[in-house]
Each structure stands twice: as structure tokens, then as C-alpha cells.
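yo, ribose-phosphate diphosphokinase is done. seq:
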Amino acid sequence: MAASSPPLPSYFLSRRKSLSSFTSFKHCSISLHDEKRCRFRCHIKSFENQPPNWSVDVLSGTEPVHLNSPSPMTMASASASDSSVKTVKRVCLFYCDETKALAERIAAESDAIELRNINWRTFEDGFPNLFIPNAQGIRGQNVAFLASFSSPSVIFEQLSVIYALPKLFISSFTLVLPFFPTGTSERMEDEGDVATAFTLARILSNIPTSRGGPTSLVTFDIHALQERFYFGDNILPCFESGIPLLMNRLQQLPDSDKISIAFPDDGAWKRFHKQLQHFPTIVCNKVRIGDKRIVRIKEGEAAGRHVVIVDDLVQSGGTLIECQKALAADGAAKISAYVTHGIFPNRSWQRFEHDNGGRPENGLTYFWITDSCPGTVKEVMSKAPFEILSLAGSIASALQI
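structure:
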């Protein structure tokens, strides 16, 4: 205010006391229009228990103090803007050599995800000699690690990193393990499977807590629902599914109105039928005849339909092939398959042939798998009938939770 401006009138000085209870004042301006009229406006940027950008008007004469709030539309717009800013969480994503390609696809999904590398080295005796460049640079950051426990030989070195990262004064830690290993057999009831899943869950439950609390675990389509109870209090498991990727792909097919979903056994039906309830359903089961175990259709009709066999994982592929034979014998026009985790030990994916133009007895029209098992993706890429449905977008979204 210029030095020649007249002093503030006494009635303003008395009203100024009534404004002193407000918490924070910014952007204040005083306009003196003439000797008889004075206006004081104060924009309040932070006002306890009230939305921002309120203003106070003090006019000359006997008029009271006016507390003006912004319009509901402005408030809603400001609230939405603030909400959108707050929901974006910046994440430093580390990865192992096997998951590098998937990590790059995840980072491409969001500008809020920054890739960080690790120097994977070993001592002469074969034990891990790992180095995290610029470890101090991740202090106070949200950190995630994209793991792949494809074989016992790589689990130990990755656990070394997983146990070290939360200790670097990071804000939060998320372990992304797309495929949670459960052993080598196809039946969760086998003792080997239970022991493998339980032991790994208990090992991960001992990950040190970060400054933000327990570790978050993101995994997809666990083999048995009871696995969610194997983890201790230091792990917050987030169970995701690859089924939405399959549903999007099915909608793109020219015969999408003729799709039926087949489950090779009751276990697959329990896992997935609620997510796929809009499609006609076929349920198969395994029966033993002598020394052989064959698959038969328990309920549903395959005749004239494009039948998609859905399961969580495939190993040798024997069950899927037997299911394909039963559906072809029942008159299916086309047969395809989907599994979230294509494990395929000993290159067993070679057992699956392409149908060569709609001959379901000879092979599959499509075989969809996700990129949860990076080693398999490298082997089957661009080989019919295989198509890869990437989990990158789903993982990027899960990292924002």
C-alpha cells in the first residue's frame, strides 16, 4: 500500500480482531476506494475443518463480516483434482534378469513407475554377490521387486535382495510374484505341493518390515484357495487374476457369441466359475479305468461351440489334452485353452499342436498364457497356437494400491 494511502478506519480495526481466530491467511489485499468506503478481502488457503479457498469480505459501514465459500461445482472440481494428484504413487521397480522384459512392459504402463537395476554377481564359490546401485537414492521411496521363482536355484539370490530392500529406509515395499510355486504335481492334495507352498509362504513371511509396515505381496491365480492362510502377519497378500485378460481377448473373437467355457476338473470350476458365469459352462472330471486316468464330460454340451478350456496352470499338459479329446468327441467346433501360468517343464509345450483350420481333434485354435513364467514366454513366442496375454497392466495397477 502506498505511503500516501489513508490509515485504516477504526471500525475495521475492531473487526480485524474477529478475524484473528481463522487459522491461515494468504494472498491478502487492501483496497481503499475513498474516505467513506473501505474493503478488505482475505483468501484463506487453509481453514480448519473447511475446504480451501474461502474468502472474507469486510465492508465499510454497519455491514457484517462476510465469509464466502466457493461454489459447489468449484469445490467438486478442486476436490477431484486433489484426489487425482494424491492417488498417483511413484514406485521404484527392481527386477531380476528373468523378469526384465516384463518389468519394462510394466514401466511402459505408467509414468509413475521407475525401473531400477541390480548388479547380479556371484562369488567364486557360487554364492550371490549382489550390489544395488545408488541404494541411498531410494530412501523414503515406494519400492517394489518383480520376482520369478522359476527354479530353486534362483530363489536364494532373489531372497537376498527381497530381505535387503525393506531395510534401506524405504517408505513401503511390494513383492510382485506373478506365479506362486506350489510344487511339481498337478494335485494340491499331494504332500509335496502342500509342503512347497507352505514353506515358501513362511519364508516370505519373515521379510523385514519397511518404514511403512508389512510387505505387500502381489500374485496371480493361486493354485489353492487355502494358500492365502499360509502367510504370517508380516505379509499382506493381494490376490489378482488373469481371467479379465482372457475375457477381453474372447470379446475380440469373431465367434465370441459361440464361446463356452470348459473346466477340466472341479478344482478349476471352484476357482474360476464366478468370473466366467456369463458363458455356458462345461465341467469335466477325471475317472480311472484300470491303470489309466481319462477325462469325461460331467455336465454341459460342447456340440457346435468354440470351447475354451480354463485352468490356473499347466505342467505336462496331460489333463488338457485328455479334456480336448473328450470335447472334440462331443462335437465341439473349435477348442482353445487358457492357463494363467504356463510352466511346461522339459518343454512339454511341444505336445500342443495347432488345429490347422478348425479341426479340434488335431489341436487347439488358441492357447493363451500370461507372461507370469518368463522362461516359457521366450520359448513359445510366435509359435501357434500360443498367444501371450501380458500381466503388465494388471501389475502396474496393483502397484498403486
